[in-house]
Amino acid sequence: MSNQRVVEVVEDLERLMLDFVRKHHITHAEYRAATDLIVAEVKAGEESLLLDVFLEAEATDVENESNSGSTLAIEGSFYLPGAPEVTGPAATMPHRPDEAGDALIFRGTVSGADGKPLAGAELDIWHADAEGLYSNIHPGIPDWNLRGRIKTDADGRFAVRTIVPPPYEIPKDGPTGIVLNALGRHFFRPAHIHLKLRHDGYVEHTSQLYFEGDEYLDNDVANAVRDGLVLRIESGEDAELAQRFGIAGTFNTATYDFVLVEE
Ligand code: MBD
Ligand code: FE
After folding, report:
1. What phi and psi values does residue 13 have, to the nearest 5 degrees?
2. What is the CA(222)–ligand 2 centre distance, in A?
3. How far is the CA of 248 from the centre of ligand 2 (A)?
4. Of 2, 3, 48, 70, whose CB has the highest number of CB atoms within 10 Å?
5. d(Cα 33, Cα 173) in Å, to the nearest integer?
6. Ligand 2 centroid to 168 CA: how many Å?
7. Is the pTM of this model over 0.80?
8. What ipTM, to 2 d.p.?
9. Whose CA is nearest to atom 1 of ligand 1?
10. Per residue of the chain (263 residues), what is the pLDDT tens digit?
């Protein structure tokens, strides 16, 4: 039995690609190079990187047009379900004892579109280390490092300690790198924290948060920065947080308040 959506979308894509092959006089060798590229990408462990860099942001923008919650952004290629839960008043992302990078307390609230705080929402976070590398993807990093899930408290609030990630260079030695090189593009993304947010009865939310002043905000290889997703890092003293997290002196905080959409 045919699926109407598949017929509509795939047949249109088929027409577009057939026209494209004619228009550019694609040779058989070029066609095979393209299929080889996709195979090589998967074999190189790049997952969906090539398509995520070129196309994913457009798909999230389509959803943003009719989205009344917080702005969506791309998932990227390196999400893994099942990250450790991080709990307690001093919730801290899994990290190495000597984890490099400036400490950051990322905090905020989660509410519904009606402003009602959502208790027990699950914020699933992953980001690169100070070298720009992701655990469970790049070798030599403990499993689940800087990947964690934190729940909001009874008032819909969360606070988690981590590090400020650096601008990130996507893998450039693999097939995606070959394509970007041939286009003369650079490989950088602005520093970002990836996240997914879940609560029963609400649509799962996937986005990323960036930081003010980053030189790649306007020049992201994945073109995925959107208004409202750029955080200011505040550096100062906050007695309540300092006591909670057992940190002395000044430290960085960044705050974001999420709005989820009901299913
Ligand atoms: C990432 O972490 C990322 O941000 C993108 C765009 C692609 C792959 C991995
Ligand atoms: Fe990323």
Report:
1. -65, -40
2. 10
3. 30
4. 70
5. 17
6. 7
7. yes
8. 0.96
9. 76
10. 789 999 999 999 999 999 999 999 999 999 999 999 999 998 988 888 999 999 999 999 999 999 999 999 999 999 999 999 999 999 999 999 999 999 999 999 999 999 999 999 999 999 999 999 999 999 999 999 999 999 999 999 999 999 999 998 998 889 999 999 999 999 999 999 999 999 999 999 999 999 999 999 999 999 999 999 999 999 988 888 888 998 887 889 999 999 999 99
